[in-house]
Amino acid sequence: MYYLASKGLSFLLHPFHWVLALLLLSVLVRPARLKKSMRIFSLILFMIFGNRAMINTVYRRIEAKPLLQESISPPFEYAVVLGGGFAGLHNGFPDRIQFNDHVNRLTEGMELMGSGKVRKLILSGGEGGLQRDKAAESLLSQAFLTEINWPDSTILTESTSRNTFENARNVKRMLDSLSALAPAIEGPGTRAPVLLITSALHMPRAAACFHRQGIPFVPYPADYQQWEKVSLPLYFFPQLRCFDEWQAIFREWVGTAVYRLKGYIE
Question: Taking the model in full, what pTM does it have?
């Protein structure tokens, strides 16, 4: 029930739906003054939540600074790459794996492996949608790495988690089974064995979940959404893409609050 409610709430947290709802209500209500007020308010919402400069300012405040690869020494034994809906299959192209613009989570892990900063990847993530007949995201990522001749011995998968809490819980079980969290990691020249890779926006909630599970890790934010520079026209002309990005921000804020209420994080 909680899982279904979270997906329904995600729909309600989309600002563009608020704009459409106000416009629809303005058609249904009778008082002319109320109609006008609702339409003006819907326009205001459209201009605010479609403004690239405004959402970019928010990103700059909530996205953590990146961890530079050159600062990683010695290498990490494991990098945990959290799924986020970046991999999937298309019915028209069953012979290939498709990625969206959040695939930077995976490519950062691949780059760290290639440069010797990480020894093994743990791909964590099942199918997070309402349809349970789709392939798990971690297994799709594993299949992609196998197709490009990535060594099987360097890839571990956790394919049953549906949310961030389950990511952390299941990864903890995997690390325990590998005896990867032994106290022997302490001492000169050593570090926590896990590098946690997820979107910069998602990192605070993910980090809180991993802390709660007692996993020693270093955060490695990826998939940054903030722009280095916003052109002048975008201060005045709304972008529809901004509405989806606001939804993601609201989902993180609400998700963090719900996780605290349920005791998933402190």
Answer: 0.89
